[in-house]
Automatic annotation (TrEMBL):
InterPro entries: 5peptide_repeat (IPR001646), DinB-like (IPR024775), DinB/YfiT-like (IPR034660)
Any single Pfam family the record assigns to this protein: DinB_2
Residue ranges annotated for the DinB-like domain, each copy included: 112-255
Name this protein carries in UniProt: Pentapeptide repeat protein
Length: 278
């Protein structure tokens, strides 16, 4: 019999010699928890925060980690700068995603638009059904575009331009986002690629206009959006809004390219050629 726990406070609970194999934890707080002799073999963790976590006497073999690294010490070595340097070596444009001035932000955005144009062109060689496939439980290609539409709407449309509800019904927030009233939330939707790209072009043009008029004074300023909704923040650095957009665009394109490669290897890499009409 499967036990289910919903909306319960189990703070301070003690589990000893308990089997939780195959269990599902969704929006569960484990901050401050202590785990000893725990078997995580085959475990998948997404959308998690490990700030201040200490792992001692662990075995990390055949482990894949994808996320933001900062002061990650493995056997006495901070590996974050090493990983960062290696990624920059592999992808020289990556270092340009952390600009210091207005011209640098403009250059970074131009790079992203160019790279994304190539990725979209590659995606068009796939049958559209493949662009709705979720690879390894990640977003599909079309869902990724919908999420980027959401991100630019949030950080450029709402935070910078002051549109308190910039959403399109097809925008897609992150999976763990609270279900606020008026927030777009339809992960199951299957819009056509061109339908999503039409919204995408509008959002890209919006960011481009922000970048074209960007000044050093703006970069040094702060924005406030205390109104209900998301993002909601007081005195948030203007430049950080743009850096979040750059990061979202850069990282999600890499995810999209990775998944297109997997689909390609599975034989889903070419759209059918229409038959000639006699």
């Amino acid at each position: 019999m499967t036990s289910e726990f919903h909306e319960q406070d189990l703070t301070g609970a003690r589990f000893e010699r308990v089997t939780l194999s195959g269990s599902t934890f969704n929006r569960v707080k484990l901050d401050g928890a202590s785990m000893r002799s725990v078997d995580f073999s085959g475990t998948r963790i997404r959308g998690a925060f490990f700030e201040g976590t200490r792992l001692r006497g662990v075995e990390l073999v055949d482990v894949e980690i994808s996320g933001e690294l900062g002061h990650v010490v493995v056997n006495g070595v901070d590996i974050a700068p090493l990983v960062d340097a290696e990624l920059n070596r592999r992808m020289p444009d990556r270092a340009k995603m952390r600009p210091a001035d207005a011209d640098g932000f403009r250059e970074a955005w131009a790079i992203l638009e160019r790279l994304w144009a190539g990725t979209v062109a590659r995606a068009r060689t796939f049958p559209e059904a493949s662009l709705h496939r979720e690879v390894d439980e990640e977003w599909s290609f079309i869902q990724t575009l919908r999420h980027l539409n959401f991100a630019t709407g949030a950080w450029a449309g709402r935070m910078i331009l002051g549109d308190l509800s910039p959403w399109h019904p097809l925008d897609l927030p992150w999976d763990e986002a609270p279900e606020w009233a008026g927030f777009p939330w339809d992960r199951a939707a299957r819009p056509a690629l061109d339908e999503v790209l039409a919204i995408r072009r509008e959002r890209q043009a919006m960011v481009r206009r922000v970048m074209e008029s960007l000044t050093e004074e703006q970069l040094a300023s702060e924005v406030s959006r205390p109104e209900p909704g998301w993002p909601q923040a007081d005195s948030f650095p203007f430049r950080n809004c743009l850096r979040i957009i750059l990061n979202e665009e850069w990282e999600h394109r890499l995810y999209a390219e990775r998944d297109l490669t997997i689909l390609e290897k599975e034989g889903a890499g070419q759209a059918p050629v229409p038959e000639e009409q006699g």
